[in-house]
Amino acid sequence: MHRGATGRFHNTSTAGETVRAFVPEPLPPNPPLAFDGPLQMALEQALLALGRLDSITTLLPDPDLFLYSYVRKEAVLSSQIEGTQSSLSDLLLFEMKEAPGAPLDDVREVSNYVAALEHGIKRLRGGFPLSNRLLREIHGILLSHGRGSDKAPGEFRRSQNWVGGTRPGKALFVPPPHQQVEECMAALERFLHDDKPALPVLVKAGMAHVQFETIHPFLDGNGRVGRLLITFLLCHAGVLQEPTLYLSLYFKERRDEYYRLLEEVRRTGDWEEWLAFFLEGVRLTADGAVTTARRLVEIFQKDRSRIEKKGRAAGSALRVHDVLKERPLVGLQEVSRRSRLSFPTSTSGMKLLIDLGIARELTGKRRNRIFGYDRYLKILSEGTEPL
User: Do both 286 and 375 map to the same domain?
Assistant: First the structure.
């Protein structure tokens, strides 16, 4: 439905140029959303997929294994959209205090994302409200080190920014003047907690994401915080028990359509077209996560069965295998610590996994070697190829 522009333009000056900054009207839209047949069906299918995703985490033998790796995959993807070149292996190596293959600033940026996500979930579980204060905390952690650390971490901007283009006069989009950011964000916070009109949580999440990206309240990191907002809102509302839904891969693979629809909402007020796109992303992403979890469980079970056939030698190898499920990139000292096996026993257990083609030594060194769980890493890395 075309409602007309969802905001007004405000002439402002920045970097010596006069630009038209867009100030969005508060949500919800007027006239209200039209839940016709296709959009209602898309919502129902997305909710069913979310239900399957939420239930899979309770059926996994150890859901923390899945969450540990899945959160890190999301961190890589979300940061890649902003231009980093870090891979999942780079991040895991960095967390082991090993030298990654990508530039250090890129990997540190991804590591900050993991810390910001984990902080946000911990705060919500502790009863802290989903609020602008929490979003500022998240942003502060996201930009705490490395690139962007000079862009006012944890603070709403105090100057004009723009999206696309080397200068404001050539920008693809200019968000509200900084004097109006606080007011716009306060209105967004009220929308998040207002139940009049009653809107499905998924619909509210899709609309809140667009509004946040339109306000662009920070000097840097808006895309990453805006994508986290979706997950936080679903966890805060109890739709998801664990932070397992991330749309970064969906947005990454459909970048042009994503940006077109954001602009279409601002220009024509067509929320329905955006929501159809968003809900399809929720469905595909949730179903993809369920498939990934099942594939990982199948691999773990098959590899365990192969190890068990080795008789007496299997005991230590099974414990090393358990460590690789927790940390798909790992050194022998860490294997020994986590498995509570001696270093020589850990070494012999790892050798058996290498002989079976389950693990692979990655460094070529004689000392301080790093081992990878190949098939596990391959599945996790799907879709994380740098743009």
Answer: no
Query: Does residue 302 fall inside a structural domain?
Result: no
Question: Do residues 231 and 356 share a domain?
Answer: no
Range of the domain at 278: 7-291
Whole-angstrom Cα distance, residue 79 to residue 176? 24
Spatial separation of the C-alpha atoms in residues 16 and 32, rounded to whole Å: 40
Q: Do 148 and 218 lie in a common domain? A: yes
Nearest to 210 by CA among 20, 370, 29, 354: 29
Both 236 and 325 in one domain: the answer is: no
Is-contact 102 91, C-beta < 8 A? no
Q: Are residues 120 and 231 in the same domain?
A: yes
In terms of pTM, does the model score above 0.70?
yes
Domain boundary among the residues 291, 317, 346 is at 291
Quote the Cα angle for 134-148-69, to 5°. Answer: 65
Cβ(281)–Cβ(47) below 8 Å: no
pLDDT tens over the chain, length 387 residues: 899 999 999 999 888 888 999 999 999 999 999 888 899 999 999 999 999 999 887 777 677 878 888 899 999 999 988 888 888 888 888 888 876 766 788 889 999 999 999 999 999 999 999 999 999 999 999 999 878 888 999 999 999 999 988 888 889 999 999 999 999 999 999 999 998 878 999 999 999 999 999 999 999 999 999 999 999 999 999 999 999 999 999 999 999 999 999 999 999 999 999 999 999 999 999 999 999 989 998 999 999 999 999 998 899 999 999 999 999 999 999 999 999 999 999 999 999 999 999 999 988 877 889 999 999 999 988 888 765
140 and 229, same structural domain?
yes
- Among candidate residues 235, 259, 291, the one where a domain is terminated: 291
Question: Roughly how many angstroms between the first and final C-alpha of the chain, as a whole number?
Answer: 33
Instruction: Count up the domains in the chain and report the number.
Output: 2
Tokens of 355: 């002989």
CA distances (Å), origin 186, targets 203, 208, 312: 19, 12, 64
